[in-house]
Amino acid sequence: MNSSQIDKDSYAEQQQLEAVLAQTIAIANSKVDAVEVAINKSTGINVSTHHGETENIEFNSGGALGITVYQNHKKGTASTNDLSPQSIEQAINMAIEIMKYTSPDPYSGLGDQDQMAFECPDLDLFYPSDLNVERALQQAALAEQAALAYNSHIKRSDGGYFSSGYDIRVYGNSYGMLQGYRTSSHSLSCCVIGEKDGQMERNYAYTSSRDINELKTAEYVGREAAKRTTEHLGSQQIATMQMPILFSPEVATGLIGHFASAITGSAIYKKSSFLLNQLGEPIFPDWLTIQELPHLLKGVGSAPFDGDGIKTYQQNIITEGVLQTYLLGSYSARKLSTPERPLKSTGHASGIHNWRLFANNQTQSFDELLKTMNKGIVITSLMGQGVNQVTGDYSRGASGFWVENGQIQYPISEFTIAGNLRDMYRHIIAIGNDIETRTNIQTGSILIEQMSVAGK
C-alpha cells in the first residue's frame, strides 16, 4: 500500500472514530451529567535484526476507547477495545457503576468550556510511509553492517531496529467538542559492543522523525553507534573531587526533565516537589528562558490539545530565569486555585509540548564549551534513579570524558556525580548550540559550574 492510500484510509478511519465517539457521547449524555471520551489508535511495524539475520517482526494495530463519566462530582472510568454499539454501551454502564462507588471530589469534571479546542490546527505531523517489512529489515541490517565495518574494536552487534507507524487521536466531550488528528513516527537505531585490552563497552545511536525521508541514513546510524562505542573504550577511573560538569545534549534533556516533573500540578498539590511556592521566583540564571511551542510544525511534542481537550498555546515556562507557571491540567488547576489566585489549565493534562531553551547571552559550540570549562568532566551517560523530587537531591552513576586544557583527554567511567537540582540550575554557566531535536525537551549541552564527583 502506498503512502497516499494510507493517507486516504487513515483519514477515513479518523472520521469513523469521530462518529463512534459522537455516538458514545450521545448515549452517555442521557445517563450522566457529563462525559468525555478518547481513543488513540496505533498502527505500525517494528523489526529487529542481529548480525544481519531477522530477529523479530511485529505488526501492531489497535487502541482502546476510554470513557469517563461525571455525576454529582463523582467520576467513573471504563474502556473497551471493541467498538461495536453493544460493547460501547456496556462500557458506559460499567463506568457509571464504578462511579457509584467513588467518593465525591469537588475538583473533578470536564475542563473549562472556554478553553476547549473546538478548532484543531494542522500541525503537519502526519507523514505515513509505504515502508514494507523487507525494506525495514534491510535498513536495520545496513546499520549493523556499517557499525561492524567501522574498525577492529567493534566485535559484535547488539541489534539493528527499525520502527514505523502512525496514530489517530480523537477526543470529545459533552460540550460538543469533538476533534481528532493524525501523527506519524519513524526511527532507526543500532547498538554494538566493542572490546579493547579486555575491556568491553556497549553504545548506540538512533535517528527519528515524523517524516521517514528526514531520517539519517542507516550507514550514518551504524557508524555513529560504532564511533561512540570506540570512543569510550579504555576508560579510566578518577578520584573524588569537585569539578565543573558538562552534560552532553542527550543527558541534558533529562536534567531539564527533572525540572518539568517538579512543576507538574500533581507534584505541587501533593507537596512532593522541591519547587513548592516558587512561582515568580528565580530558578535558572537570568539569561536563560524556556519556551513551550506546542504548535511547532512536525514537532516531536506538538499537539493541538491536551488530554482534557484543552487547546494548547505558546508560552514561556521560564522567562529570564524566573518561573512563570506550573504545568496544570484542569483537575490540578482547580485543586490549586484560591480565591486570591484562581487558576486555569495550562494545557498540560498529558505532558509537555516542545520545550526549547534560549540563552540571552548567546549559545556556544561544544568546543567552545570545553574551552570555557577548561578542566572538568563531560557526561555522556547516566545510570540509576538517584533523584529525590521532594528535596531536589541528585546523585547518579555516570560515564563520559575527562577534559583538561579545554580538550577531551580520555574516557572515564565508574563514578558518581552529586548535587542539588536547585543549586545545579542556578549555577548553569552556559548552554550549547548542539541542540538535541529528537525529544520533547530541546536543549544543547549544559555546563554547570561545579558538582561533587565520587570516584575511586
Global mean pLDDT: 96
Number of helices: 9
Q: Specify the helix fraction band.
A: 10-25%
Count structural domains: 2
| Global geometry | globular
The CATH architecture designation of the largest domain is 2-Layer Sandwich
Structural class from helices and strands? alpha+beta
Write a compact overview of the structure shown.
By secondary structure, this protein is α+β, with helices and mostly antiparallel strands.
Account of the protein in words:
- It is built from nine helices and 18 strands.
- The protein has two domains: 229 residues, PmbA/TldD fold; 214 residues, no CATH class.
- Strand 3 and strand 4 form a beta hairpin.
- It is of the alpha+beta class and 456 residues long.
- The strands form three sheets. Strands 1, 2, 3, 4, 5, 6 and 7 form a seven-stranded antiparallel β-sheet that branches.
